Amino acid sequence: MGPDPLQIRSAHAILPSVSLNLLPRRSHMLTLNSIIQRDPEVVVAEADQDLIMVSVATGHYYGVSDVAREIWEAIERPKRVSDLVDGLTAVYDIDSSSCKDQTLSFLEALFDEGLLQVKDGSAG
Fold this sequence. Notes:
By secondary structure, this protein is α+β, with helices and mostly antiparallel strands. The chain has helices spanning 66-74, 81-91, 96-112, and strands at 9-10, 35-38, 42-47, 50-55, 61-64, 79-80, 116-119.
């Protein structure tokens, strides 16, 4: 099995690549009903096949590629997590449960790093 395609690399971390499962969690828990959007205070630039993201608030920068880049691009506007997962399972050869788990883990890592805005979507 190859490397986890949903991976975020943080240049301020000691390790060049950080698995999403190792990042600390905030108290907010994302669900399939959560409505997410990337934080507008994040500056993004392309570098080959990767996206380099800089948090204006913290000065930290990150790199994403592959599926993680596709997710980042998909959440430019508010999007329900379930719609994001449905779109990914339609394009990639992955079962819905695995896609949900990996996507939620990645989104929670983005949130923990202050790169994601989240609203509870249960009312709508």
